[in-house]
Design a protein that fits this description.
The complex is a heterodimer of chains A (about 260) and B (about 60).
Chain A: H1 2-9, H2 11-43, H3 57-84, H4 87-119, H5 127-147, H6 152-166, H7 169-179, H8 199-231, H9 236-254
Helix pairs in contact in A: 2-8, 3-4, 3-6, 3-8, 4-5, 4-8, 5-6, 5-7
Chain B: H1 6-11, H2 16-62
Classes of the chains: A mainly alpha (about 260), B mainly alpha (about 60).
Chain lengths: ~260, ~60
């Protein structure tokens, strides 16, 4: 177990294994997102109350799930970095933040747009909406904090602490609809009970959620590899790997 | 199929502005994210290669 964690923590090992995993997650993401989009937009039946505006659910719910999951992943990565000093965890946390912010924005924007025909308003200081807005500010805070230090180690530690403290907002988002029920309806989906929607409505939603998660994993692998290149560019193994051909060609020229 | 024709699909039963703006912003952000990640990766790889070439040629000149 420990040997595995330390291997996982080695940027060189991670760079290699992530290259092998990445194409599978990209393929899954494209396949799931295309299938889910076509199904959700064109084939799922219209809602008997909301008509076709309910099709916003297929981007709204996956984005909102991801926005929260990415923050939890960032907090866990921050903890792993702080406790075990594993740098790859910090690199992953750093590249996750912008996608998390983007997903939070998508959830808020699609929710606002959906609110107009459904609730007659695009915004209200409802607990769910407000706690999601706080999540967006937390993401922006983490990103800004990383850029605010000249020392990378200080920046990493500050961002990790903010992520670990900010994660308290996640259960607040989750239970906000039950604690202060004002505008946003409670979860339409739980892992423990059968969905109340017909199958041809919720199946595309499940596909979209899986597609968004695959996209997140694929993008995080890709950008963590870039982050490794950025931070370890002076390391011998990076130069050998990237320049393999360049160095050899020039060595032959000079011979 | 929930729609009788393509133009009906585009009209979304009168909800076109809501459905397409929500989906459009989502698609745009996802595509922009991938595009940015690709540019970032290419720039980093090229930067490392350029530095190695420069170091190599400096070494070559010194000999």
């Amino acid at each position: 177990m420990w040997a595995f964690i330390h291997k996982l923590g080695s940027p060189k090992w991670f760079y290699g294994i992530s290259a092998k995993l990445q194409p599978w997650f990209w393929a899954a993401a494209v396949l799931l997102l295309v299938t889910g989009s076509l199904w959700g937009l064109a084939f799922a039946p219209a809602d008997y109350q909301q008509g076709n505006s309910f099709r916003i659910i297929y981007v709204h719910v996956p984005a909102a799930f991801l926005a929260q999951s990415i923050f939890i992943s960032m907090a866990v990565s921050g903890l792993v970095f702080m406790v075990w000093k594993i740098k790859v965890a910090d690199m992953a946390a750093a590249v996750m933040a912008p996608l998390g912010a983007a997903m939070t924005f998508v959830a808020l924007f699609s929710g606002a747009v959906w609110g107009v025909p459904t609730w007659g308003t695009w915004w209200m200081w409802d607990a769910r909406l407000t706690s999601m807005l706080i999540l967006l500010f937390l993401y922006l805070g983490v990103i800004a904090l990383r850029g605010a230090f000249t020392s990378r180690d200080s920046a990493s530690r500050a961002a990790s602490v903010l992520a670990m403290v900010g994660v308290i907002n996640i259960p607040i988002i989750k239970y906000s609809v039950d604690w202060w029920y004002t505008l946003h309806q409670p979860a339409s989906f739980t892992l423990t009970s059968r969905p109340t929607m017909p199958t041809e409505m919720w199946l595309p939603l499940v596909i979209m959620v899986l597609g968004f998660y695959s996209f997140f994993i694929a993008l995080t692998l890709m950008r963590t590899r870039s982050e490794i290149l950025r931070r370890e560019s002076s390391k011998r193994w990076v130069q050998d790997l990237v320049n393999g051909r360049v160095v050899n060609a020039q060595a032959e020229e000079t011979r | 199929m929930a729609f009788a024709s393509f133009s009906e699909f585009l009209a979304m039963g009168g909800h076109a502005p809501y459905v397409w703006s929500a989906w459009g912003v989502t698609a745009l952000l996802l595509i922009a994210t991938v595009w940015h990640a690709r540019v970032e990766q290419r720039q980093l790889l090229n930067g490392i290669k350029r530095r190695a070439r420069r170091a190599n040629s400096l070494r070559g000149n010194a000999q």
